[in-house]
Amino acid sequence: MTRKGILTAFFATALCLVRPGPIRAVCNACASDVVCNGCVTNTDIADGTITGADVSSSAALSVGSMTTSGSVGVGTAPGFKLDVLSTAGSIPLRLKSLASDTGTLLFQMGSQANSENAIVSLTSNEQQSKNLSLAGYSLGNIGHLKLAADQTFITGNTGMGVDPPGSRLHIMNALNNVGTIFALPPIASLPDPSYTHRAVMQWEGGEAKFGKWRQSFNTFENDWALSYNTPYDPVTNTYGGRDSGDSRANIAAVMRFNVAEGDSGGNVFEVHFAPPAAAGVPPDFNGAASYVFFDGKRGDAVTSRPALLAIGGPQDVDTGVQLLNAFMGVRMMIDGVTPYSNRFRIRDFYNGADYMTIQTPNGNVGIGTSAPGYRLQVGNPGDGTQARANAWNLFSSREYKTDIRRVDEKESRGILEKVKALDVVRYRFRNDAEKTEHLGVIAEEAPKEISKDGSSVSMGDYVAFLMAALKAQQAKIEELEGRVQKLAQANVGS
């Protein structure tokens, strides 16, 4: 550069220090004392410092530092203090540090009013870089964190209301607030056959053994449902193929609340277990074990309907219901468990004794027996069971009887002879723990009038049998009295 050029550049630079505006210098590229339009190079600015309100160049510019009181725009007219517009690629801004990776702060935004506490800070320190901290001064100035990306992936634990989180998702609820809300998109009316959000929540993992758990709610007359090892379509009320066919977990199950019917009696709570099958095979809940509770309907004698509890099982498996008081050891059972098929039982849980049994289909009732052979049986044969009451009345009205025939005197005398021939014995029942002594007859030796089966005695017939014998005996007594009276009168006359 000539001496004249050096002086010109000196005065031009000095002028720039006192007056904002574009740089005026002698350009090495064009040797012209004019405003440079994109041809300023590193050689033109030896000290590496530019001070001014505006620097504009279409060519690359590398400087040590730059201070400005205005705005800086890169690729665009600045609308902010720093405004970057990239047309060369998808990344508009890159921040990179060549310093050692020992905690160098790569990026920080803060506020001087908040003592320069970082609102967002990213660091190259390995430990610190695991945390992305979003906070205002005293942690009180930020109300929302919005992630607008289609997907958010977090490799570590996530805590909501708790720090540090102890699991992949750790939620600590605030007092008197709802802890977790799963919201559906707004729909004008439900049920809606076109509604496709059927599995609002799904648990999965370990499908080699276990099936998936799927939770649904507010889907076509189905307020809430939980299915296991099978997807559920509430619109068609059908189930898809099993996730797992492993023999340890290849059943399918569903639990469902339906409260879409109002006061119609059609509301239902149901639980079903389908028998095992291979993976991909849909469950058949019609032949499954089930528990179904139907809501009742209020109304008059015609329109009302009772609440109903229906418990069923597969056709090849017995079905039972147990109401257990484990503390007292008493269990009420309605079951079909072999050999007690189709019975209602109240039994002792510990010793297996049946306190009461109602047997179907014959309707026999047993007290103290599990196999009643009659409409009412108290105890088992030979166990000495006793029953007591203030009165025991037998139906005996003429209205209930047919083929009525009076026992005549001759038949009564025959019954008397049978009574005379029948031995009265003392005995104890073999299985009577109390060894109580009784007085009675042996059924096998008793006349058929009082023992129909040869193992028991009919008390009603027993009493009537003795009455007939008593009448025959009384007739004989009266006959003898008459003869004695005649003899006495004859003796008096003689």
Task: List the topology elements.
Elements: H1 3-18, E1 24-26, E2 33-35, E3 49-51, E4 65-67, E5 72-74, E6 82-84, E7 105-110, E8 118-123, E9 133-134, E10 158-160, E11 169-171, E12 201-203, E13 213-217, E14 224-228, E15 232-233, E16 238-239, E17 252-258, E18 268-274, E19 289-294, E20 308-312, E21 321-325, E22 330-335, E23 343-348, E24 354-359, E25 365-367, E26 376-378, H2 409-421, E27 425-428, E28 437-440, H3 459-493
Parallel strand pairs: 3-4, 5-6, 10-11, 25-26
Antiparallel strand pairs: 1-2, 7-8, 8-9, 12-13, 13-14, 14-17, 15-16, 17-18, 18-19, 19-20, 21-22, 22-23, 23-24, 24-25, 27-28
Helix pairs in contact: 2-3
Measured as a percent range, the helix fraction is: 10-25%
Instruction: Give the termini separation.
Output: 197 Å
Instruction: State the shape.
Output: rod-shaped
Most strands sheet: 7 strands, antiparallel
Write down how many β-strands occur, each being a DSSP E stretch of 2 or more residues. Answer: 28
Strand order in the sheet with the most strands: 12-13-14-17-18-19-20
Secondary structural class: alpha+beta
Beta content comes to: 15-25%
Mean pLDDT over the full residue set? 74
Quaternary organisation: single chain
- Extract low-pLDDT stretches: 1-41, 43-60, 111-119, 124-130, 134-142
Give me a quick take on this structure:
The protein is α+β, with helices and mostly antiparallel strands. It has helices at 3-18, 409-421, 459-493, and strands at 24-26, 33-35, 49-51, 65-67, 72-74, 82-84, 105-110, 118-123, 133-134, 158-160, 169-171, 201-203, 213-217, 224-228, 232-233, 238-239, 252-258, 268-274, 289-294, 308-312, 321-325, 330-335, 343-348, 354-359, 365-367, 376-378, 425-428, 437-440.
